Amino acid sequence: MESEGLTSIYTNVVTKSSLLSGEDSKSMHGNTKAALDYHVSINSDSYIATYFGNMDKMVAAMRAFNGLYKTLFLSRRAFAELTSQGLRCKELEHALGKAHKDDFVMGRGSALPDCFCEFKL
């Protein structure tokens, strides 16, 4: 989802570019930017992981440890299937919402299966 679509639904979205001036951003090295990403991610109200890599795994673990359960791992499989069907904009948004509707349980949330042995990519 493009930034405009996300911010039209969620009005309190914070990005690195909104936190830092252009000069500050240029002077920061990769590790410092990663540390900023990590700090903001583990302390935010909710977190959407767009890639299930090591950083996302650590963020999800720290958020769960701190009791911040609003963490969602986007289904790349669902996204690929829906876009290959030609869905765009609002239709894609609704279909992805439907694909993730069971990822959150009242008060808790995780897109991870209870048993990884039953998880199929």
UniProtKB/TrEMBL annotation:
UniProt protein name: O-fucosyltransferase family protein
Subcellular location: Membrane
InterPro entries given in the database record: GDP-Fuc_O-FucTrfase (IPR019378)
Keywords: Carbohydrate metabolism, Fucose metabolism, Glycoprotein, Glycosyltransferase, Membrane, Signal-anchor, Transferase, Transmembrane, Transmembrane helix
Protein's GO biological process: fucose metabolic process
The family this protein is said to belong to: Belongs to the glycosyltransferase GT106 family.
Pathway assignment: Glycan metabolism
GO CC term (a single one): membrane
Membrane-topology annotation of the record: Single-pass type II membrane protein
GO molecular function: glycosyltransferase activity
